Amino acid sequence: MRVEIDRSRCAMAGECVYNHPWLFAFDDDDLPVVLVDVLTQTRQISEAHQAVAVCPSGAISIVSDADAPDGSASPESY
Amino acid sequence: MASLQHEIDPREFDSPGYQHDPFPLYRRLRDHHPLFRDRFHNRWMLSRYDDVNAAFQDNETFDRALYKVDGPYRFGSSHVFGPNILEYGNSDRHRWLRNIVAGQFVGQGLVSFIPFIEQIAEELIAENLTGGEVEIVSAFTNQFPIRVISNILGLPREDEDRFVGWYQALIAGLGFGGEHLARGIRARNEMWAYLDPLIDDRRMHPREDLLTRLCQAELDGVRMTDDEVKGFIALLLAAGGDTTDKAIANMWYHMLYTRPDQFEAVKQDPSLWENVFAEMMRYDPVVHVQARYTTREVEMYGRVVPERALVILLLGAGNRDERVFADPDTFDIFRDDLHMGRENRSARYRSHKPGHLGFGVGQHFCMGYAMARQEAVIACTRMMQVMGDPRPTHAAHEGITSPNIDSGGFRSPRELWISFDGA
Fold this sequence. Notes:
By secondary structure, chain A is of the alpha+beta class. Helices cover 23% and strands 23% of the residues of chain A.
């Protein structure tokens, strides 16, 4: 399970970075990047879901690799 | 060293003139004492936009809570509110507590409440905005946000009026002290007694409401205590109710008295209420100060601020910084050097325009920012719709004031009479 950010949709609100500093950080362009490649722990996953819910621009999605039988990942919507 | 003619007597901060019009003093601070040491009140003050903004973003150095060895100090408003999350400063516990409710006020959570906000605005308008002449602070603004919050919490609608009463007593207690404080604490106690059985109920029988979220959320298997839940609710009432209430009154005040010419444009295009909101939050926001405590020695402007010093961030002064905003003392809903759209916690915008500092920035950025803007714009738009051609009942107005800016006192007009003919 991974977190993806649509950088073109991102409004730079910073909610993800401030609420979940272990998972997101600002890069040099002031856009967020994901710090953890694969989410494994329950708490990581629940916080990632919180980040999706709180993002004002809907730029964050959670990609479950197992969901895609053809091998390509599909974003879940929340 | 500032020359003698620019010296500031710290007792000016306690004068009635300052409460009414703090802006001349703000300018002297920015120009001559960008880092002001107030020995009389034992604190430091920052007043320039860039300094206030930077301090807000540097939580490692400027913490919201003052720590002692075994935990955070109780300070400020906790005698009225009970324990609240701001006392957890820059910590995982603060982040966790904030995240429990943040989702209700931002992003997808907010969207689901918009029809509800509209409904409550309509109800209040139908009930109270009648008769061609109305004092909107008591008839509308004072009740609107608190009714919204009470419903988000999931309190019974038939108890809403009692809740509004407690809230008003609590807020008066915070703002004015004296007998108001005694009444405020009495209201707090009544409200807490009222909440006890509701908290018990939500712990046993979860529902789809914010009170349930507060009661059920767990961090490492531990829930908030009853006192923490009640402290959280009190904080939501003051931070989420009173501020929005006063923001709406301020928006109307500036349209009626500061810029009646621009009000004509708003009447033509109600979507401009969004701009009115942004410019109000810059020009004279409800909250002018935020307190921080240094966690280490900080060197600024060639001086050393010691560790554990109280630093007042004068965001109301930063918002008027002529280094950032052209003609900063003019209220202008069309200014092109301010980010007019929705605020960002990061203070970063794709337009690269600076935002106002009215919600703070960073870790303790107002949790209800999106909700506040939404409520304010919906309320103003609907009120204007019903009133048709609103105008000030009285030609003169005493203006916007605060009981105590420095201790976080909220700024707003005490009364605001509007005459109208109806749409």
